[in-house]
Protein backbone atom coordinates (compact mmCIF):
# COMPACT_ATOMS: atom_id res chain seq x y z
CA UNK A 1 0.00 0.00 0.00
CA UNK A 2 1.28 3.47 -0.85
CA UNK A 3 1.91 5.39 2.37
CA UNK A 4 0.40 8.78 3.20
CA UNK A 5 -1.65 8.94 -0.01
CA UNK A 6 -4.72 11.11 -0.54
CA UNK A 7 -6.91 11.95 -3.51
CA UNK A 8 -6.27 15.59 -4.34
CA UNK A 9 -7.91 16.23 -7.69
CA UNK A 10 -9.80 14.76 -10.57
CA UNK A 11 -8.28 16.22 -13.73
CA UNK A 12 -10.01 16.68 -17.07
CA UNK A 13 -7.89 17.33 -20.15
CA UNK A 14 -9.82 19.92 -22.15
CA UNK A 15 -9.49 21.25 -25.69
CA UNK A 16 -10.10 24.90 -24.73
CA UNK A 17 -9.15 25.80 -21.15
CA UNK A 18 -10.88 29.22 -21.19
CA UNK A 19 -14.17 27.79 -22.48
CA UNK A 20 -14.09 24.96 -19.93
CA UNK A 21 -13.13 27.32 -17.11
CA UNK A 22 -16.13 29.57 -17.92
CA UNK A 23 -18.42 26.52 -18.05
CA UNK A 24 -17.46 25.28 -14.58
CA UNK A 25 -17.41 28.79 -13.09
CA UNK A 26 -20.59 30.16 -14.63
CA UNK A 27 -22.83 27.10 -14.81
CA UNK A 28 -21.77 25.27 -11.66
CA UNK A 29 -20.50 28.22 -9.64
CA UNK A 30 -17.15 26.56 -8.93
CA UNK A 31 -14.57 28.83 -7.34
CA UNK A 32 -11.07 28.89 -8.77
CA UNK A 33 -8.36 28.15 -6.24
CA UNK A 34 -5.47 28.61 -8.66
CA UNK A 35 -5.27 29.57 -12.33
CA UNK A 36 -1.91 28.94 -14.01
CA UNK A 37 -3.19 29.43 -17.55
CA UNK A 38 -2.83 25.88 -18.87
CA UNK A 39 -3.84 24.39 -15.50
CA UNK A 40 -6.83 25.51 -13.42
CA UNK A 41 -7.71 24.11 -10.01
CA UNK A 42 -11.12 24.62 -8.44
CA UNK A 43 -11.69 24.56 -4.66
CA UNK A 44 -13.76 21.35 -4.87
CA UNK A 45 -10.91 19.23 -6.26
CA UNK A 46 -11.75 19.40 -9.95
CA UNK A 47 -8.86 20.53 -12.12
CA UNK A 48 -8.58 21.32 -15.81
CA UNK A 49 -5.49 20.97 -18.00
CA UNK A 50 -5.13 22.24 -21.52
CA UNK A 51 -5.09 18.87 -23.32
CA UNK A 52 -2.14 19.41 -25.68
CA UNK A 53 0.00 20.79 -22.84
CA UNK A 54 -0.95 17.95 -20.47
CA UNK A 55 -0.25 15.20 -22.98
CA UNK A 56 3.10 16.78 -23.83
CA UNK A 57 4.08 17.01 -20.13
CA UNK A 58 3.05 13.40 -19.49
CA UNK A 59 4.26 11.69 -22.65
CA UNK A 60 7.03 14.07 -23.71
CA UNK A 61 5.67 14.60 -27.19
CA UNK A 62 2.48 15.57 -28.94
CA UNK A 63 0.27 12.57 -28.27
CA UNK A 64 -3.21 12.11 -29.65
CA UNK A 65 -5.69 11.11 -26.97
CA UNK A 66 -6.70 7.46 -26.89
CA UNK A 67 -9.10 5.70 -24.54
CA UNK A 68 -8.02 6.47 -21.03
CA UNK A 69 -5.02 8.72 -21.54
CA UNK A 70 -7.04 11.92 -21.52
CA UNK A 71 -8.40 11.58 -17.97
CA UNK A 72 -6.19 11.69 -14.91
CA UNK A 73 -6.84 11.04 -11.25
CA UNK A 74 -4.33 12.88 -9.07
CA UNK A 75 -3.07 11.74 -5.68
CA UNK A 76 -0.49 13.40 -3.45
CA UNK A 77 1.86 11.62 -1.12
CA UNK A 78 4.48 12.91 1.25
CA UNK A 79 6.50 9.76 0.52
CA UNK A 80 6.95 9.90 -3.26
CA UNK A 81 9.97 7.56 -3.31
CA UNK A 82 8.15 4.95 -1.18
CA UNK A 83 5.09 5.26 -3.43
CA UNK A 84 7.27 4.65 -6.50
CA UNK A 85 8.85 1.57 -4.91
CA UNK A 86 5.41 0.23 -3.98
CA UNK A 87 4.07 0.65 -7.50
CA UNK A 88 7.16 -1.02 -8.98
CA UNK A 89 6.82 -3.98 -6.62
CA UNK A 90 3.17 -4.51 -7.65
CA UNK A 91 3.84 -4.80 -11.39
CA UNK A 92 1.56 -1.89 -12.28
CA UNK A 93 1.79 -0.60 -15.87
CA UNK A 94 3.84 2.61 -15.78
CA UNK A 95 3.13 5.66 -17.94
CA UNK A 96 6.42 7.23 -16.87
CA UNK A 97 8.91 6.79 -14.05
CA UNK A 98 9.46 9.18 -11.16
CA UNK A 99 10.64 12.48 -12.64
CA UNK A 100 10.61 16.19 -12.00
CA UNK A 101 8.02 18.28 -13.81
CA UNK A 102 9.00 21.65 -15.34
CA UNK A 103 7.60 23.38 -12.21
CA UNK A 104 9.81 21.29 -9.88
CA UNK A 105 7.29 18.76 -8.55
CA UNK A 106 8.38 15.12 -8.54
CA UNK A 107 5.68 12.81 -9.94
CA UNK A 108 5.09 9.50 -11.63
CA UNK A 109 2.09 8.18 -13.50
CA UNK A 110 0.63 4.72 -13.97
CA UNK A 111 -2.35 3.25 -15.76
CA UNK A 112 -5.26 1.78 -13.88
CA UNK A 113 -6.83 -1.43 -15.27
CA UNK A 114 -8.99 0.61 -17.70
CA UNK A 115 -5.97 2.66 -18.82
CA UNK A 116 -6.98 5.82 -17.02
CA UNK A 117 -3.93 7.76 -15.87
CA UNK A 118 -3.28 7.81 -12.13
CA UNK A 119 -0.71 10.40 -11.05
CA UNK A 120 1.17 10.45 -7.77
CA UNK A 121 2.95 13.68 -6.87
CA UNK A 122 4.61 15.52 -4.06
CA UNK A 123 2.40 18.14 -2.39
CA UNK A 124 3.43 21.57 -3.68
CA UNK A 125 4.21 22.83 -0.16
CA UNK A 126 6.78 20.02 0.09
CA UNK A 127 8.22 21.04 -3.29
CA UNK A 128 8.55 24.66 -2.20
CA UNK A 129 10.19 23.68 1.10
CA UNK A 130 12.59 21.32 -0.70
CA UNK A 131 13.64 24.05 -3.12
CA UNK A 132 14.14 26.46 -0.24
CA UNK A 133 16.30 23.90 1.64
CA UNK A 134 18.33 23.49 -1.56
CA UNK A 135 19.14 27.22 -1.45
CA UNK A 136 16.71 28.73 -3.93
CA UNK A 137 15.44 32.23 -3.16
CA UNK A 138 11.72 33.01 -2.89
CA UNK A 139 11.87 34.73 -6.28
CA UNK A 140 13.56 31.71 -7.89
CA UNK A 141 11.03 29.34 -6.34
CA UNK A 142 8.08 31.48 -7.46
CA UNK A 143 9.46 31.63 -11.01
CA UNK A 144 10.17 27.88 -11.17
CA UNK A 145 6.89 26.69 -9.60
CA UNK A 146 4.64 29.44 -11.05
CA UNK A 147 2.99 29.52 -7.62
CA UNK A 148 1.56 32.89 -6.58
CA UNK A 149 4.09 34.68 -4.35
CA UNK A 150 1.63 35.08 -1.46
CA UNK A 151 0.87 31.34 -1.30
CA UNK A 152 4.54 30.46 -1.57
CA UNK A 153 5.44 32.95 1.18
CA UNK A 154 2.74 31.49 3.49
CA UNK A 155 4.28 28.06 3.05
CA UNK A 156 7.81 29.28 3.78
CA UNK A 157 6.90 31.19 6.95
CA UNK A 158 4.65 28.49 8.39
TrEMBL record:
Keywords: Lyase. Residues 6-123 form the VOC domain. Transmembrane segments: none annotated. It comes from the Archaea. The keyword Glycosyltransferase does not apply. InterPro entries: Glyas_Bleomycin-R_OHBP_Dase, Glyoxalase-like_dom, VOC_core. Pfam families: Glyoxalase_2 (PF12681). One of its GO terms (molecular function) is lyase activity. This is Lactoylglutathione lyase family protein. It comes from Methanoregula formicica (strain DSM 22288 / NBRC 105244 / SMSP).
